[in-house]
UniProtKB/TrEMBL annotation:
This is NUMOD4 domain-containing protein. The chain crosses the membrane at residues 99-118, 130-148. Keywords: Membrane, Transmembrane, Transmembrane helix.
Length: 158
């Protein structure tokens, strides 16, 4: 949770469990009132989402004159409007760690296969094409995974 406090414009946060009970609260006055507001907005938002043909809403943002509230994945963050970086805030919520780990593993594996395939005699039994094509494909897939881990496309994958 220390990463939250490093966000630009951070004022405070509340972590809520599935039942709507407060698990953690930091720098928030009257957290129970804020939880009631969040529950109401989730209920109303889910009703509107069903009317529009969606299953549910994943989160919401409420903008005030000085401070704003964002909520997603059981975590509500209050930020100062003047200092907040909205791209960083929503990327924090949607940073897909699975994509990052997969991308890093594939890139490292492709680099190792390039090394073994071209600079050692380990893969001499293979024709030259698989020694180059397989690591190249793995490298491309790994880079794509790394790019998708922090993109607006990953907002939809969650």
């Amino acid at each position: 949770m220390d990463n939250i406090k490093k966000l630009k414009g951070y004022v405070g946060h509340i972590k809520i469990n599935e039942e709507g009970k407060i698990e953690e609260s930091s720098n928030i006055d009257y957290p129970s009132k804020l939880v009631d507001i969040i529950k109401f907005n989730l209920k109303k938002g889910n009703e509107e989402a069903k009317e529009l043909g969606f299953n549910k809403i994943n989160g919401f943002a409420m903008f005030g004159s000085d401070k704003s509230l964002t909520f997603m994945k059981g975590l509500a963050i209050v930020v100062d409007n003047e200092k907040a970086d909205w791209q960083d805030l929503f990327t924090y919520y949607t940073y897909n760690k699975t994509f990052i780990i997969t991308g890093v593993v594939l890139v490292i594996l492709s680099i190792l296969l390039f090394y073994y395939g071209l600079l050692t005699s380990v893969f001499n039994f293979m024709a030259p094409e698989p020694r180059i094509y397989i690591p190249t494909i793995l490298l491309l897939i790994g880079v794509i995974f790394l790019a998708l881990s922090k993109s607006t496309f990953s907002y939809r994958l969650e």
